[in-house]
Amino acid sequence: MVKPVIPIRKETPRGPLPLVPNTLSEAHGRTLDRRQRPLRDLRISVTDRCNFRCTYCMPKEVFNQDYPYLAQSELLSFEEIHRLATIFVTLGVEKIRLTGGEPLLRKDLETLISMLAKLRTPQDQALDLTLTTNGSLLTKKSVLLKEAGLQRLTVSLDALDDAIFKAMNDVDYPVSDVLKGIEAAQKAGFEGIKVNMVVKKGVNDHEILPMAKYFRNRGITLRFIEFMDVGSSNGWNLDQVLPSAEVIAKISEHFPLVQIDPNYTGEVAQRWRYLDGAGEIGVISSVTQAFCHECSRARLSTDGQLFLCLFATEGFDFKTLMRSGRSDLEIANAVMQTWSNRGDRYSEIRHLHTKDLERKQRKVEMSYIGG
Ligand code: SAM
């Protein structure tokens, strides 16, 4: 018997249906949660599949051919994503990041990008439209992405040393191909590209300096991400987290740095500039310096569940709401209602999350809700 290409998920775990209030109000561009945090960013996962098996994200032992990836019919269509994005923009979202899984694996993604690129905020501004990728398809797709209206790109790369990178992506993918992808993106006209490096203590921390050296003076902002306890399958342990403060200290010894202001309130990365003018780097310290108090991000999973926190255990089933014939105004009111009840601040209270609690409530995987 031929194995199905897309394994069928027998039973998709669905979160609760979002509440539509009885009295509907006009959508307006400022939606605050219980901690007075506005809804500004929307991350949209366009696929739960990836061609890498990064050991800290989609370890092979779990994400193998038996893994119940979503069936095609469960994915939001481009029209549905566009509809929801339009509603979110009327509610204050100014930035949309496409992610996954590996977003460039989603067929014809540039069509979705060109649809989203036409959206305007209530102040008639274009969106900040960006995408996070492992870079493997950039050589092929950069020009298409640029022409479709994608504004910015973030590429993930965890080491310059081929053996270390291959061990981390676990599919033998070479560094040189990611670097070629980044060059192709620059040639296609993408400026201000960011490169994300997840730092795992004892695994790739000795790559911090080589990475910094390589990306200095190239117009690329390298950002170091603390290894996070997202999902329930990466065997996270605090001992494997290298605090960002140590990253900064390590780089400063060779290339002095000075901290600079964020580009905007709620920016996840803390910015540092090289004193010699070689550009800037960033650190994302979700573990050692939680930034929940400024978090303005909602996450839409590949199958239309809305998550209010990267570390959530459950989302709100907007796909079913949308497919039940509700109007845009009803959906907008459901989003406002859901966001205004949001109180999550997982990273700030991480220490209270005992192993026992985690065993009972599995956090969703990053590949499903998007990084
Ligand atoms: N496939 C795309 C990529 O590789 O960039 C997008 C999805 S990936 C889940 C998004 C980002 O999340 C990547 O930069 C990845 O390194 C980061 N990431 C995944 N798991 C992580 C973890 N446990 N801790 C910190 N960052 C993580």
Overview of this protein structure:
Mean pLDDT is 92; it is low at 1-11. 27% of the residues lie in helices and 15% in strands. The chain has helices at residues 78-90, 109-117, 138-148, 162-169, 175-187, 208-215, 244-254, 318-323, 328-340, 355-360, 366-369, and strands at 41-45, 95-99, 128-133, 152-156, 194-199, 221-226, 257-260, 270-274, 280-284, 297-300, 305-307, 316-317. It has a 12-stranded mixed beta sheet with strand order 7-8-9-6-5-4-3-2-1-10-11-12. Helix 1 (78-90) packs across helix 9 and helix 2 (109-117) runs parallel beside helix 3. With 371 residues, the chain is of the alpha/beta class. The protein is built from 11 helices and 12 strands. The chain binds S-adenosylmethionine (SAM). S-adenosylmethionine (SAM) binds next to strand 3, strand 5 and helix 11.
Could you give a short description of this structure?
The protein is α/β, with parallel strands linked by helices and 371 residues long. It contains eleven helices and twelve strands.
